[in-house]
Specification:
Blueprint (H helix, E strand, L loop, with lengths): L1 H6 L4 H20 L9 E2 L4 E6 L5 E6 L4 E5 L8 E6 L6 E6 L5 E6 L4 E5 L4 E6 L7 E6 L4 E6 L3 E6 L4 E7 L5 E6 L5 E6 L4 E5 L4 E5 L7 E7 L4 E6 L3 E6 L8 E4 L7 E4 L4 E5 L4 E6 L4 E8 L5 E6 L5 E6 L3 E6 L49 H6 L9 E2 L2
Antiparallel strand pairs: 1-28, 2-3, 3-4, 4-5, 6-7, 7-8, 8-9, 10-11, 11-12, 12-13, 14-15, 15-16, 16-17, 18-19, 19-20, 20-21, 21-29, 22-23, 23-24, 24-25, 26-27, 27-28
Function: Nucleolar protein that acts as a modulator of rRNA synthesis. Plays a central role during organogenesis.
GO biological process, one term: rRNA processing
Pfam family, one: WDR55
């Protein structure tokens, strides 16, 4: 009977090994923890610009040193991965954009150059070294062959990339071109400028159409909303200016946010856009009726340079002077509805936090941490959450 008894004897070494193996098994799921959003990405320099890949979980970032980074992001803990980096620009990278097929990455810089990178290989495939006579601020890929760029002195150029030559070069702004947008038919280009005007250019006829009347402050961004019926421009004065399509000369509406500025706007749906500001807050705003529906996220006390929406509209990424790229869950905005009816406003002036990561306060960032929306909230709930930011600031011209 001795043999069976020996089978059940466990040495101290074996017992310790079993404990270690059990601990390893228990720790494995923790390393694969699924997060609500990807982890923040820390950079060595301030990031100016962000762009999401049109088909994959890939993000491009350009910084003030002229470097471009490509990341694969993931909600699995510890699985954000740098795919490659490039230092081909000699000065600050101002804008990056993927081609529609995701195979090329375009970039413009303070060094006046346009670069085209191969996304998979991370190699420079084309350089237009003196694309403008002044530093380039803005970039738009109109289609697979046509690219528009705008510079610091207000010159708009449109390029045929099959020949690497510009077929339009027009200067009608008195200051920098901050952003460019195109209609779905690719016929009209809209530009926002530091001179306070929006420019309208006819791409098919290759000519300038008109400038809007001058608005207060710099126009920092431009987007087309409401199924192409409205155009929205952000301004350095914290105002959203709204134009009717084919009524570009004068605004049809304006909406003042309780924000230092509106430095970047990104449409999420036909009615809702996100804004970034110098106060470090990313706001979700409904257009007509004009409402600030809540806070998407924040870089506490740090001016935000740019925001971008992912290909599946699940995440918004932001970059700021804290040298962090942050990700925010915006999936709840897709089903959000806002009615014309105004509920009584809140007296504390807090922004509604739209996710677990979004702080709630304008003055006190931590004041609304527990005041969060459900993803599929009703219209009435959305109205209940309107704050001082969206009360009576919309003025008809």
């Amino acid at each position: 009977m001795a043999a069976p008894e020996l089978k059940h004897e466990i040495s101290p070494e074996d017992e310790m090994l079993g404990v270690l193996e059990k601990d390893e098994e228990m720790s494995t799921p923790q390393t694969q923890k699924i997060r609500e959003t990807p982890e923040d990405i820390k950079q060595e320099a301030i990031i100016n610009t962000l762009a999401f890949h049109p088909k994959e979980d890939i993000l491009a970032a350009g910084d003030v040193d002229g470097d471009i980074y490509l990341y694969r992001y993931s909600c699995k803990h510890g699985e954000n991965k740098e795919l490659w980096s490039s230092g081909h620009h000699l000065k600050s990278c101002r804008k990056v954009a993927f081609s529609n097929d995701g195979e090329k990455l375009f970039s413009v810089s303070k060094d006046k150059a346009v670069h085209i990178m191969d996304v998979e290989a991370g190699k420079l495939v084309e350089r237009i070294s003196k694309a403008h006579s002044k530093p380039i601020n803005s970039l738009l890929l109109v289609d697979e062959n046509v690219v528009a760029t705008g510079d610091e002195e207000g010159t708009l150029k449109v390029w045929d990339m099959r020949r690497s030559t510009s077929f339009m070069s027009l200067k009608h702004h008195e200051d920098y071109i901050s952003d460019i947008a195109a209609d779905s038919a690719k016929r009209i280009l809209l530009t926002s400028s530091g001179d306070g005007t929006m420019g309208v250019f006819n791409l098919k006829r290759r000519r300038f159409e008109l400038l809007s009347e001058i608005q207060d402050g710099d126009l920092t961004s431009v987007s087309i909303m409401k199924h192409g019926r409205k155009v929205v421009c952000g301004s350095s004065e914290g105002m959203l200016y709204i134009f009717n399509w084919n009524g570009f000369g004068a605004t049809s509406d304006r909406f003042a946010l309780q924000a230092e500025s509106v430095d970047c706007i990104v449409p999420i749906t036909d009615n809702i856009l996100c804004t970034a500001s110098m106060d470090g807050v990313v706001r979700a705003v409904n257009i007509l009726p004009n409402r600030v529906v809540g806070s998407v996220g924040q870089h506490v006390g740090e001016p935000i340079e740019e925001i971008a929406c992912s290909w599946d509209k699940r995440f918004l990424a932001s970059c700021a002077h804290d040298q962090l790229i942050k990700f925010w869950d915006i999936s709840g905005l897709l089903a959000m509805k806002v009615s014309d009816y105004r509920q009584q406003k809140k007296k504390d002036g807090r922004l509604k936090a739209l996710s677990n990561k979004a702080f709630g306060g304008v003055g006190d960032f931590f004041s609304g941490l527990l005041d969060m929306n459900e993803p599929n909230r009703t219209t009435e709930e959305a109205e209940d959450n309107d704050s001082d930011e969206d009360d009576g600031d919309s003025e008809r011209k």
